[in-house]
Known about the structure:
The structure is a homodimer of 350-residue chains. Chain A is α/β, with parallel strands linked by helices. The first copy, chain A, has helices spanning 16-23, 27-34, 42-55, 61-67, 83-99, 115-128, 144-152, 176-189, 205-221, 236-247, 261-273, 307-320, and strands at residues 73-78, 103-108, 133-136, 157-160, 171-173, 195-199, 228-231, 255-258, 283-285, 302-304, 330-332, 336-338. In chain A, the strands form three sheets. Chain A has a six-stranded parallel sheet with strand order 2-1-3-4-5-11, with helices on one face.
Amino acid sequence: MATTTVDVSGNGKTTMAEVARRAGVSSKSVSRVINKEPHISPSLVAMVEAAIAELNYVPDSAARSLAGSRSFTVVVAFDNPSPNYIMKVVNGAYRACVAHGYHMRFDTIDSQRGHSSCLDQLDAIIKNSRIDGIVLTPPLVDNPLVLDHLELHGIRFVRIAPVAGKGRSPSISIDDAAAAADIAQYLWDLGHRNIGFVNGPRTHGAAGKRRDGFLKRLCALDPHIEVQQADGAFLFDGGMEAGGKLLSSKRPPTAIFAANDDMAAGVIAACAQRQLAVPDDVSVVGFDDSWIATSVWPHLTTIYQPIEEMAAAAIEILLHRGAAGRPPEELVLNYRFVERASAAPYPASG
Amino acid sequence: MATTTVDVSGNGKTTMAEVARRAGVSSKSVSRVINKEPHISPSLVAMVEAAIAELNYVPDSAARSLAGSRSFTVVVAFDNPSPNYIMKVVNGAYRACVAHGYHMRFDTIDSQRGHSSCLDQLDAIIKNSRIDGIVLTPPLVDNPLVLDHLELHGIRFVRIAPVAGKGRSPSISIDDAAAAADIAQYLWDLGHRNIGFVNGPRTHGAAGKRRDGFLKRLCALDPHIEVQQADGAFLFDGGMEAGGKLLSSKRPPTAIFAANDDMAAGVIAACAQRQLAVPDDVSVVGFDDSWIATSVWPHLTTIYQPIEEMAAAAIEILLHRGAAGRPPEELVLNYRFVERASAAPYPASG
DNA sequence: GCAGAATTTGACAGCGCTGTCATTACAAAT
DNA sequence: ATTTGTAATGACAGCGCTGTCAAATTCTGC
């Protein structure tokens, strides 16, 4: 098909009735095609779709939600300390929503404030105005209370990077364990044999997967390896403190893998504080390829997660489920190892 | 057929007709009160408002936009490299929108791609579906083409931190010049006499204001002072490069003020590269108090801008204009000097 | 072949609100 | 007292779409 971009000159508010007239059918038939209702003939579909394309018709979501039962609104829920992560998710989800004529809301659920508060916040979101679905991000995705509550209220949801509750909802993730294993292998191949790990919060399932994948590969490489670990809560300060702990142990590691970039940046700061050069004295690797990965020196070697795509995919699944070809319930997207300058061979060779 | 009225406590499904019945008036009168139309008696207002409160009524925005001419959608437009800044604006604007039952869209306008492209992108936003207003953020706010275009199309807009085109729209800002002057004074009081400045992009008006305020105060303190400057484009790498330039001049400054935090972080990295300790050898001050301010070591001494409040205020002005007490057209919010650990007395005393 | 079922389409009535116009009430002007 | 004007309210018709129901059409099986 040629790229027939119909110009919007003067256009702007074509109605369903016009499309119907153009296609020589009733407006209800147009509605049926748009909503992919069952029992419509292929020829009807063809005619209507042609008319829609010719008139460059876009359904009015206000009218749709007034007449129908759907709100054309989905919400993206967060309980995450990193604005970089949130921003990417919001961006990806937002674009996908706009592309489908949906509205996107986003809300923060502070699960630190206890179970009941958490559910109250959830209630506020779902009762406020009936929503068509919700995208959950870590660490909300692994909170059984939240999942129970959503199921109880019959709210459809899609989860990004869940660890627990497999099968309770469609999900999008990357293979965190494999990515962490890649890092382990990378560091090993660089010659490092004394490697430290900075863990994320316990509530964050993906952090655990990264840890497991990392440790498992290291154990496979050397069953007797000892990996020193410290917790950093996914925050810069936590990473700095954890890095300090590792670096001042009796056997300081020559390489440290932090489960996210913020903590990796903190580890670099801890190195600087001790006059240790990165990567010459200590190699540091992060995870996420977030904004901060290139806002430290040296730029972080890290794992790129296609967060925007993941969020967009989550929206797609939320919106298209029940339609013709049902998309896979558990989508795993590709990560990418990003080699920058924060890790180097050991012992330093040049 | 039995309508299972799964009642929600109060909220949920009350219609305007119910409110009207409750108040003993016509539904149109309720509508008038809600929309603050002229020529309504105080007694009517009182009755209707009481009924609204008792029934916990919330107007349905889908129905409102279908029936009326408004879309209940505002857009926030960006052309900004910093996700931290965007995130804060989005957050503040979003909350304000939700509080008023409005939808928020946000879009990026890439003005690097030339004038016509820039206007095309703007057109796509305002033609897509008629919007009720637009919030402009720097550096879009000072782009005369954008302003002209918006005015031409009769789109109302509010600007955050504009420099040029005073009076062309309501605006929200902080006193960038005064804040920068505070920093100059602070550094001066610390004993620094050789001070460098890292500038933001030329297109970003506020960066210029910071520069001017900073320089002016320094000149007032010492008319013969020489301030070395470099450009950093508001980015980490740019700041690092600019810092490097300053630091390797024949007369390296003992203190550097960067026009935003990202560049300040870059300056710190440049110091580290040269084995210069911050703040002992070099003091560094940033601007914005963004996420990165506490994601570097030492944490940045900087200026806190109430970005979320500014964005929320922008939305308020956009939505309430024309209503009773018209808010001030040029709102100036307070900044706050945030003293952390990246600046110290010179010469170092302890 | 024909009753009964399933498929495919259209007519029509609202969804909850606002714009328009008609109507009332009452002050000011003639 | 009558006209004129304006403030204050209501009746009613849609906005653009979908749900319901009925009608037309095409299949089934026996």
